[in-house]
Amino acid sequence: MEIATFETKCHCGYTFDLPELSDMSYGEFLYFDSSGNGARYLCAINNQTWEYISTIIDSELKDTSLTKGIIIRNTLGEIADKININTTYVQKGVCPKCNSFVNSNTEIKKGIMEVEEMSFKQFQKYTDSEKRRIVTEFIKL
Ligand SMILES: [Zn+2]
Question: Does the predicted TM-score (pTM) go above 0.85?
Answer without folding.
Answer: yes
